[in-house]
Amino acid sequence: MKIYWLTRYGILPSQIKELRRLFGDDVVVIEDFQPPSDADDVIRRFKESGADELVIAGWPHLIVQIVQQGIKPLWAEMQ
Predict the structure, then answer these.
(1) For residues 4 and 53, what is the distance between their CA atoms, to the nearest angstrom?
(2) How far apart are CA 38 and CA 36, in angstroms?
(3) pLDDT for 14-53, tens place per residue?
(4) Residue 29 in contact with residue 3, Cβ under 8 Å?
(5) Which one, of 34, 46, 36, lies nearest residue 70 by Cα?
(6) Cα separation of 73 and 25, whole Å?
């Protein structure tokens, strides 16, 4: 299982632990800190990554546009 995680701040150890609990110990997280230009940029990068799931931490206006295009990202809860 590969997860593409677009973030401004990085992933917390507790989030990695939860991903492993949900998806197994072999989960691979691809972190991307590069701010996206638009929703199409996010979708392109996600598809190019070959990941199975997408997480976006931030950019709520882009999340709406991505969902409208049929992709349903996972929701990251931050502390």
Answers:
(1) 6
(2) 6
(3) 999 999 999 999 999 999 999 999 999 999 999 999 999 9
(4) yes
(5) 46
(6) 20
